[in-house]
């Protein structure tokens, strides 16, 4: 059972917009920034969004992040087949004094 | 460009100690700017933060693993290491090392893991 809650799956067709949610509490998302990671099968996670809504160099602007209260969202606009991957949210947690992750969302491009 | 590479036995017997190292290239673990973390992922499951070490040698561990985990650094080799004692089959996972930036600002605790090592599979089995 992950501290941060994500839907296990999401899907969309090419060109559609998709949003993945991440729900937490005041001890994590409510008080700290959120990061998102993208992971393809058999590879290490890659930083996709940091500090709620900032993109590392090289990440397409189709990917955007937002945070409100104790929840965060990852939005993908103009879905592409290469976006099919697992997505994880993460934040610092005061109660655990450590990092917590969401359970991950498997995005399928239909 | 900083790169991380995990190394260590791929098979560990139950009740024994899992030992992994992470070699950092393209940057120094003594820089004082970064935290160096271990994260694991059981097959088909999500990510779990194990713990981290800072340049000063200070550490933080996941409370669920704290009694069994030790993270240390060897600055002469530009490496940091993970030891997990009394392993069981539940510790079978891909283990990743990662660099993290962490600081406080008006938005709270800010930080992220980047880059990550490629990961190494550790199986606990007799």
In words, what does this structure look like?
The complex is a heterodimer of chains A (110) and B (126). Chain A is mostly beta strands and 110 residues long. Chain A is built from no helices and nine strands. Chain A has strands at 9-12, 18-23, 34-39, 46-49, 63-68, 71-76, 85-93, 98-101, 105-109. In chain A, the strands form two sheets. In chain A, strands 1, 3, 4, 7, 8 and 9 form a six-stranded mixed β-sheet that branches. A three-stranded antiparallel β-sheet of chain A has the order 2-6-5, with no helix packed on it. In chain A, a hairpin with a 6-residue loop joins strand 3 (34-39) and strand 4 (46-49). Chain A starts with 8 loop residues before the first strand and ends with a strand. Chain B has 126 residues and is mainly β. Chain B has strands at 3-7, 11-12, 18-25, 35-41, 48-54, 59-61, 69-74, 79-84, 93-105, 108-116, 120-124. In chain B, strand 7 and strand 8 form a beta hairpin. In chain B, strands 2, 4, 5, 6, 9, 10 and 11 form a seven-stranded mixed β-sheet that branches. Chain B is 0% helix and 56% strand. The chains are: A mainly beta (110), B mainly beta (126). At the A-B interface, strand 7 and strand 8 of A face strand 5 and strand 10 of B.
């Amino acid at each position: 059972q992950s501290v941060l809650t994500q839907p296990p799956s999401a899907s969309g067709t090419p060109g559609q917009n998709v949003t993945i949610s991440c729900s937490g509490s005041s001890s994590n998302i409510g008080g700290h920034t959120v990061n998102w990671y993208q992971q393809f099968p058999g590879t290490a996670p890659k930083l996709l969004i940091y500090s709620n809504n900032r993109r590392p160099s090289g990440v397409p602007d189709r990917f955007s992040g937002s945070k409100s209260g104790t929840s965060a969202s990852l939005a993908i606009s103009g879905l592409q087949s290469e976006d099919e991957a697992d997505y994880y949210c993460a934040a610092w947690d005061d109660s655990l004094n450590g990092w917590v992750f969401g359970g991950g969302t498997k995005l399928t491009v239909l | 460009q900083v790169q991380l590479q995990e190394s260590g036995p791929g098979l560990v017997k139950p009740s024994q100690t899992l030992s992994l190292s992470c070699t950092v290239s393209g940057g120094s673990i003594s820089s004082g700017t970064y935290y160096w973390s271990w994260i694991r992922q059981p097959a088909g499951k999500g990510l779990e933060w194990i713990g981290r070490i800072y340049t000063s040698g200070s550490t933080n561990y996941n409370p669920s693993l704290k009694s069994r985990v030790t993270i240390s650094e060897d600055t002469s080799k530009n490496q940091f290491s993970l030891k997990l004692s009394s392993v069981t089959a539940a510790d079978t996972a891909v283990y990743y090392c990662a660099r993290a930036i962490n600081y406080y600002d008006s938005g709270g605790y800010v930080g992220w893991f980047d880059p990550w090592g490629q990961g190494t599979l550790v199986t606990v089995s007799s």
